């Protein structure tokens, strides 16, 4: 099972590596990374709408590093409260905020200060400052009240968690009864090699912490979710250095995943 990190894994080192990686993305999105970034990647690989992205501040779209497209999973309704539980520079968050409109609210939580700064300024620039709130926090300890949001969106971040049961429990806690989880994340079709699972660098690249696909539904059900299913698949690592590093571990891909509280 990949629900937790390997025995003896240095969780503190992982968190430091993840923070350093995404701080570097925030400061230099055109730098050298194991994964794709930016609006062209989002359109060509993940089926985002080019016009939607062109209408957002360049600062947030340039720093986008998701793996799927959770906004394609289902409706986001006017007046709803949405949480992007590791929002990064805020691209998905701002797109969701536009859908909930002035009668709704969109919360973004992220642990990386530089990413929060970009998301906050992008929300103001996009004219969404009144309905977007950015908070510092971890996805294992969300600074959000119990049963206070209608929808949690997540893009490429659950795989970064050393204890995924705790992350799913937190998502379940903050959702209202009947609430939805729209999640995009990396999955594998068979267990990864030990040296891959124990690489903080490949954890930070969204690969080494990926769940085998059947475990995704299992952990959701164990956390109290129902009606879970995969709705779409994405070849998000095509033509990256990460793909070469895991060439022997077949079928690393991203999926859109839907579940209900």
TrEMBL record:
CDD domains: AdoMet_MTases (cd02440). It comes from the Bacteria. The keyword GTP-binding does not apply. GO terms for molecular function: arsenite methyltransferase activity. It holds the Pfam family Methyltransf_31. The keyword Methyltransferase applies. Its EC number is 2.1.1.137. PANTHER family: ARSENITE METHYLTRANSFERASE. Belongs to the methyltransferase superfamily. Arsenite methyltransferase family. This is Arsenite methyltransferase.
